[in-house]
Amino acid sequence: MNEKTTPEKLYLYAPPTDLLADKVILVTGAGAGIGRGVALAAARCGATCVLLGRQVPVLESLYDEIISNGGPEPAIYPLDLQGASAHDYEELATRVSEALGQIDGVVLNAAQLGTLSPLEHTDVEEFLRVLHVNVTSSFLLLQALLPYLKEQRDASVVFTSSGVGRKARAYWGAYAVSKFGIEGLMQVLADECAETGLRVNSLNPGAVKTRMRATAFPAEDPDKLLTPEAVSAAFVYLLGTDSKHLHGQALNAQ
Predict the structure, then answer these.
(1) CA–CA dist 236, 27 (Å, integer)
(2) What domain count does the chain have?
(3) What's the CATH number where 204 sits?
């Protein structure tokens, strides 16, 4: 894949099996959906994945699947983003760096949907919780990881965006606002890292067969959607050197 690749074709990217060899990639929300698909795909390309999520049993299941597929042994890091403090993220960064020697990439995927309803009737505590999990936790994690990411010659941060984070819709409330926040956070960080080896981009995966999508669109036929595994190639592309020309871009997987 070269610089002429169009964003609409990213999910069709066929990564080399050694694309992420010797790289350490942290994936938030790795237990299910897109996060799980990205972790599996990154491991198939040689990455040592740090699986971050709330539920240890699903992370252990993913760990076993990566090992059974012949991938590098991943690391499990349980963390509840809703209640984690700045100190927790600093401890995470230190422990991962000490245990694995480096941090080469981050996929910021964990998110909460919240309740789809008019802003007039949105619960205030839920609104704040969604923004915290979807935006503030990403800021705190990145702030802790940036010194380690900047040590690498070709590191990458990928923010998981959404169509409603680029053109809002009625009733999407806190989720849409949080995804606009993600886009802003990406742009600020990309500008600040313009003279470093750290690349920063956002990726809208589009309609994907996940539990969150089913909650938002209960009448939709899930069999007509791409699976998380199918769309994961776009994330792997942004983590690898084939996308080294992309920085500060808001991209679409589909």
Answers:
(1) 11
(2) 1
(3) 3.40.50.720
Can you tell me which residue has the tokens 């939709």? 220
Residue 1, domain member (yes or no) = no
Query: Both tokens of residue 214?
Result: 């089913």
Total residues found in the chain within this entry: 254
Residue 175 is among the residues annotated as catalytic for this protein: yes
Amino acid at position 176, single letter:
A
Given 13, 63, 148, 175, the catalytic residue: 175
Burial code of 203-218, b = ≥16 C-beta within 10 A, e = fewer? Answer: bbbbbbbbebbeeeee
In-domain check, residue 209: yes
Q: Give pTM, 2 decimals.
A: 0.94
Angle at 10 between CA 4 and CA 13, to 5 degrees: 90
Nearest to 200 by CA among 152, 244, 232: 244
93-152 pLDDT, tens digit each: 999 999 999 999 999 999 999 999 999 999 999 999 999 999 999 999 999 999 999 999
The domain in which residue 76 lies consists of: 7-252
In a domain, 2, yes or no: no
Whether residue 223 lies inside any domain: the answer is yes
